[in-house]
Structure formats: C-alpha cells, structure tokens
Hints:
This protein is of the alpha/beta class. 37% of the residues lie in helices and 16% in strands.
Amino acid sequence: xxxxxxxxxxxxxxxxxxxxxxxxxxxxxxxxxxxxxxxxxxxxxxxxxxxxxxxxxxxxxxxxxxxxxxxxxxxxxxxxxxxxxxxxxxxxxxxxxxxxxxxxxxxxxxxxxxxxxxxxxxxxxxxxxxxxxxxxxxxxxxxxxxxxxxxxxxxxxxxxxxxxxxxxxxxxxxxxxxxxxxxxxxxxxxxxxxxxxxxxxxxxxxxxxxxxxxxxxxxxxxxxxxxxxxxxxxxxxxxxxxxxxxxxxxxxxxxxxxxxxxxxxxxxxxxxxxxxxxxxxxxxxxxxxxxxxxxxxxxxxxxxxxxxxxxxxxxxxxxxxxxxxxxxxxxxxxxxxxxxxxxxxxxxxxxxxxxxxxxxxxxxxxxxxxxxxxxxxxxxxxxxxxxxxxxxxxxxxxxxxxxxxxxxxxxxxxxxxxxxxxxxxxxxxxxxxxxxxxxxxxxxxxxxxxxxxxxxxxxxxxxxxxxxxxxxxxxxxxxxxxxxxxxxxxxxxxxxxxxxxxxxxxxxxxxxxxxxxxxxxxxxxxxxxxxxxxxxxxxxxxxxxxxxxxxxxxxxxxxxxxxxxxxxxxxxxxxxxxxxxxxxxxxxxxxxxxxxxxxxxxxxxxxxxxxxxxxx
Length: 616
Ligand SMILES: Cc1ncc(C[n+]2csc(CCOP(=O)(O)OP(=O)(O)O)c2C)c(N)n1
Ligand SMILES: [Mg+2]
C-alpha cells in the first residue's frame, strides 16, 4: 500500500495556462515505527524518483512544505510522512496553518493498527467509548479532505479525491490521509491504470455573466472606489491583470499581508497596506470608499480593522474570489471566479463603458500616497539609541534585498511593521504567513521558500520568541545546502504581546524573558542571558552580531557573499514602536477590573467598538 501511494503520487502533474509540471517535488518526513517499515521502505525503493527530505520537527516540515507551495502559487507541493502519535499530532499546527492560508500540503500520518490485534500499540490513544478513533481524527477540522486507509484498495478512491482538493483553487489546504501502520505493509492487485500519469488542469473559473454586468454597473456608478488586493491575486498570477485594471480605471489598490507585492510599492495606484496594520493612505481611502472591490482576500479582521475600516454609509462590496465562502462575505456582490479572468473581464467591460475615477479622487490618492511614502521614509530612517529600532532594521534589510529576493515572516511585531514599511518590488518577494500568524513558521517557511527559488536570497526575519519556539529547520537548511539569511531581532521577549497587554491596561512582565525574582515570586528579575549567536553557531550556521546601522549593512553584505546559512543576531529597541494609522483591532478588554488602567482601556474599547459595522 505504501509503495502504491508513492507510485501514484509521483505520477501526478498539474497544468495551468499551458505550463505542465509534476505536482509533488518529494516528501518530507520523520520516521518512527508508524511509517519506517511501510512508507520508509517504499521511499527507499523510489529514492531517485521521489526524493525524501529529512526534517527536525514535524510542524517545521509542514511549514516548509506550505511555504514551498505558496512560493509556487500552489502549483507545486510536498507530501509529509510521520510516525503515529506525537509525530502525527506535531503536524496539526502546520495543517491548520496551511488550511487557513489556503495552501496545499499532503499529510500522511501513520496510524494505529487497522487489525487492532496488538492494540494498544506504543503511542496509541485509547478511548473507552470507541476503538474507531485515533489522534489522527484531530486532523479533521484542520484539513480540507481527510481519510483513513483501512484496506489497501481504498487508495484507489482516496488518492484521486485528495488530488482533487489539493489542486482545487477554491478548496485547497491541508489534505490528510491517515495510513495505519499495518495496512502500509499490505498488498493489493491495484489496476495498472491507477499508476498512469495524470495531469490535473488548474481551472480558471469564469464569473456569472449577470453578476459581472452588475459589477460593472456598480463600478461605473462609484465615486470613491478602492481595490483590496489579497493573496488570491498572487496565486492566480493576476498581478499584470491587476495593474491593467488599476491603470485603466485609475482605481487605487490597497494591499493585505498575502497580497502585498502584486503591484510594486511605487506603482502610481498602489496606496499601500490596509487595515489594523495598514497605512494612512489606504485606510483613509477605505474609510470614505463607496465601493470596495475585494480581490482574492479572506477579509480577515486585520484587513477590515475589525469591521471599522469602511465608514461610508452606503459602502458596498464586490468580492472577486474563487471561493464562495469569501465571495459572499460582507454581503458582497459575489464574483465567484479566478482573479485573473475576473480582472480581465472587468477591465475590458469597464474600458468599454468609458469609466475612470474622477480627477478629485485621483488627486486625493496621489496626495495620500505621497504622505504615506514620506512617513515610511521617516520611520525607516529614524534612529533609536543605543539600539537599532525594528523599523530601521526593516529598512536596512529591504535595501539589502534585490527585487526578486524574498522576505519571510509570520508572527510577532514584525509582520505589522513589515506590511507598513517593506517596499516589495515583485510578486512573491514578500512572503508573510499572516493567516495563522504561526510562530515557528519563519525559519521553516524560509526553507520552503528557498527550495522553491534556490537562485534567490531568502531573508528570514524572526523575533527571539519565534526563534526559541521553532528554529530546528536551520539544520535542514545546512544539510541541504539551502542558504538562508536569518535576521533575528532580539527584544528580550514576546514584545508585541507585551505592547498589546499594555494597550489593554495591563502592567506585568508576563511577556518579557526575565528570571523569576525569588523574593516577589514575579518574573521581574534580570533579563535571561540567551546567547542566540552561540545557539545558531552550534547548529552550523555562520553568525554575525552587528550593533549599529553600518554593522548591519556590512553583515548583510557578508551574508550575501557567504555560501551557507547565516544568522544575524541583533538587539533591537523594545520600546520604540511603529504607530497605528487610522485603524483599530478588536481585542476585548475586561469589563470589570480593579485596575484603573484597565477601566480606562475598557472605556476606550467601548468607544472604538461603536465604529464596528454589520454588512448585511
Ligand atoms: C504558535 C504561536 N503561539 C502564540 C502566538 C501568540 N503570539 C503572537 S506574537 C507572540 C510573541 C512573538 O515573540 P517574538 O517572536 O519575540 O516577536 P516580538 O513580539 O518580540 O516582535 C506571541 C506569543 C502565536 N502567534 N503563535
Ligand atoms: Mg521578541
């Protein structure tokens, strides 16, 4: 059964726009008794046709696989194999990350014996009420397709179903096929055709023609329209189509974490980031917009500033999205379609109608763009002393990156600041996992991004907290000769959550990395002396520890010249933060508290909440 699985997977191809390629590039895995004799043997037999990649942590390998798929606009993917029990459940966080971000990854956790004869086996979770449950059932809510192969012949229906979901632009995410340890080693006379080459055509769905006409009517009547560009624009390779639409209509384009990079930062219609961590230009335009054209976005609370971003009383939405789930959000006119096809049709029709935004709208967006770009310049060059500020570091790394190099990040204070301050020049060069914002994605994701484009430098920007949580795939990057440039920003704690706690009126050290003070019993002692440089060096990375701007510039130059993975460790000012711009994020504050500052924060909270809107 395991051999049949690998033989099938190695024959799956995808094709879009006439380009055909194998869907799977190989398999990540960590072996245990749950997969070593089955899938392990199958992979040994197929060493030269289906490459095996070792990983340090199952979560990390799923992140690497997910990042690889993201950088390939979902046209290529990895499988991931684990043992049963903890090896399998270590993948849960990775599965959720992939599914939230709508990125394909095939998970093949080992499972308990189908025969049950020797149960309970090592690492089996027993439940008194049923023997038909294993820890792999936990994958159900975080997978877009889930199955368990209790008889080898079930592969014949399960694997094509898995492929349908993995290659579906609307449904893709993590797919889990649990492989019981005993069944992996069983055999079946599979029909030979099951192993023939299959090419899955990646569809470009066309919108409903009536809804398209209505959309054109809405656009033609709009006075202050605004586009939100989400990740779907990149996955559909619709950047040029978006450029054509924006240029033809003059409609400004704002960007989400997943959509940033579709238009270069200096494109005349790019008004920058929108939402809770957005900039002033996009957020002021959003506030007053009478029409939002949301393309390939999930409209998460960060994008909508917790539904406070759009204040025009008559605002309405056109959502162009392959997924019905997203197309219908905000009571939008749902253009269920591929972003590129949808944009091309819209551009054609809007051009024919002669629509173009007014001069007043154009002048406003130009002025707001200029003000925002000046603010970004200011933040990127404002020096903190004695340490560099995070904003400055972002500017310096951005300046050291070439147009098609990639920056990878996921959690902490960095994503919001990167969204504001990073100037992306090409699609795919800005790689943020901000659907799940999963600490630990950074280095593992950087590895996946590097596997996708080994000829480009990958800059991983990671906080000290995320680094401590999951940095083991540094070893994999060294093992595989897949060079990363890791920039580790040490602010001695979970800095952004420390700031968030402060903003909701809390004053504690729960988020700082300090010794416990034995007399007070609090985490208020000296900062923990964590030697990140020694840690990274011990894994085989080259390490540089600059302290100022010139030092960081030199370190980045050195890292580019280095052949292998380099970790640049630097302390950043923990207090100097990039402010918010015309935005808000709903984090409920305690309604009852003896603390004055919490009470004040609650009053502010209640006031802000009045701006939240229902879109019905
Ligand atoms: C796996 C996971 N656990 C918890 C969180 C909640 N969280 C978001 S940011 C953050 C702190 C990150 O610390 P660090 O990487 O040092 O970045 P900083 O906030 O200091 O910029 C935490 C705990 C998360 N996003 N992911
Ligand atoms: Mg930190």
